[in-house]
Amino acid sequence: MKPDVTFDSIIIGSGQAGNPLAFFLADQGEKVALIEKGKLGGTCVNTGCTPTKTYVASARRAWELSSPKRIGVQASTKLKIDLKEIWKRKETIIGSSRKGLEKGMEENDKIRLFKGVGKFLEPHLIQVGKHRLAAKKIYINVGTRPRIISGFENVRYFTNESILELQEIPDHLLIVGGSYVGLEFAQIFKRLGSKVTVLEKGDRIIYQEDPDHSQLVQEILEAEGIQFELRSNCLSGKNWGKSQVEVQMDCHGEKKAVRGSHLLLATGREPNTDLLQLELANISTDEKGFIPVNEKLEAEVPGIFALGDCNGKGAFTHTAFHDFEIIKDHISGNKKKKISDRILNYALYIDPPFARAGITKTQALTSKKNYLFAEMPMSQINRAKEKGETQGKMEVLIEEKSGQIAGAMICGTGADEIIGIFLTAMYGNLHFDVLKNGVFTHPTVTELIPTLLQSLQPLKK
Prior knowledge:
By secondary structure, the chain is α/β, with parallel strands linked by helices. Helix content is about 30%, strand content about 25%.
C-alpha cells in the first residue's frame, strides 16, 4: 500500500511528549507529521493539570474567605461563587497555551498537522482521514481517557473532562472513586458550595499509599464536610427523575442507594491504544492496553516508540516530558538517559497537598533492606502554625547501608514544592547528612528537615 506523503517522523498525539518532540525534530531538519484527534496540548493542557489547578486555586480562595475567623480576620460581605467566571478563567489560561502551540506549528514549515485519529495500516504506514502517511520513525503519544465502569452506561454522569464544563455548582455531587482525581474534585466542589459524597469500593481511599496516609487524607477532607462511603461496591447507576441520579451499592453485603444531583465517575483511566489498529503494525499491548517499551522507549517493532501515559511507565506530565528528553538524548547521540533513571514522585492537589517521592513505608517493610525512619507533625512546625495550617506531617525513609534517602512523604502546607528538596538529594545520591547539616531559610517548613533527620530511628519490621 503506497503512502500519499512520506515524512522523516510521524508523531501520533500532541501531548506533553509529542509537542516538544515535534519542534525538536523540526529543528534537526526533519520533516514531521503531527497527528491529533482532539485539541492541541493533550490531557495536561486541556482537561488535566492546568484546568484542574485553576479550579483548585478558586476553591482555595473560597475556603479562605468562608473561614477567616480562624486567623482573626472577618469578611464583611457574603461569599458569592460564580462558576461561570471560574470556567472563563480556566478557558483563558488553557486557550492561551493552545494558541501558542498552534502559532508555533503554523510558523514551522517542517511540521504538518493532521487532525483526526491515526491508525496503522502497516508497521510504518498510518491512515488519518483520507491521508496515508509513511515514515521510518513513528512516535505514539496517544495518552489515556477516563475509564467508565459497567453499570453506568445509561446514567447522566460526568468524567474529569466533562465536569470542567459545568456552569452551575452541583447541589449534591456523588463521586465514584476515592483516588487522586476523585479526591481533588471532591474538595474543589465542597469548597465551592456542593454537598459531596465519595463512594469507594476499597476499605480505604488512595489505596496505593500507606494505610495511615490514606487515613490522614480522609480526615483532612472529612473535616471540611466531605462524606465517605467505603467498601461500597457500586453496582450501577440510574437517572432519578429529571434532575437527580442514584447510585446503587452493595455495602458490607447490604444493598443501599444514594442520590445526588450530579455524578462524577473517577474510576481510573485507560490507554487510547485501542484506536490505533496496532495489530496491523505487529505491536502488542499488555493486559491493560499499554505498549511495552525498552529503556529507550522503543516498542517491539524497530523504529516505533511509545511515549507518555500510553506506555504504562508513568501517568504524569513530568514523566511524559522526560520520555521526550530520553528520545532527544538518544537522537542527539548522548544515549545516557533511560526510563529507570526516574524516581517516582507526584502530588495529590488537595489542600493541604500530599506529595511523595520514592518508596512508601509499606514497600520498605517488605524489602530485604534495612531502613531508618522519621516523622514530624506539621503542628510542631512554626511556619505551619503561623499560617494557621497545621494539618499533616512529614516523613522520610533512609536506606541504612548507604545513608541515602529512599522515600519521603509530605502532607501539609507547601508540600508539593518542598518535596523537591528530598528529590534533589535523591537524584544527587546524597548522604542524608547533607540535608541534616544544612541551614535553611527561617521561617519555612523546609528549615525543619534537618530536625526531622535528627530523629531517625530503625524502621521496625
